[in-house]
Amino acid sequence: MEVKVVEKEELKVVGIAWNGNYSEIKKIPSLFNVMEDRLCEVQNKTNEPVLIAPFHSRETEFTYFVTAPVEEIKEVPDGMVGFTIPRKNYVFTTHKGKAEEVENTYQKIFAWMKDYGYEQDHQALSLEVYNGEHKENNAAGNLIFDIYLPVRKY
């Protein structure tokens, strides 16, 4: 598993939001189905075949979004949100494996960050990026997605 620091440009996204505690994490895959069904409602989508899942984790709960990248945010469909994610430095890697192994991937990233002196920026959103080319694998439970954890700039 390769881990590196990258700079990601500003992103504009529109999608659905969910807030819950960690015991409800099994609800997240269904959010992708809801978003897939509603993609046609999102205006000004980019040509990128991706879904971007920004999230903000806190001690007892987290907020998770499933969004599509857009060129500009004009009209946000009912029940959706639209926002801009500012340009930011992230620690990046790709998770490849079962859903049960995702936590291990995150633990490896945290260990790498500690080893190399990076501190997570808890004020910024973390990102999971799901590329359309992996849609069938992901649906089958063989997850392939990119993880971006925001770090403080040094």
TrEMBL record:
UniProt domain AraC effector-binding: residue ranges: 1-152
SUPFAM superfamilies assigned: Probable bacterial effector-binding domain
Name used for this protein in its record: GyrI-like domain-containing protein
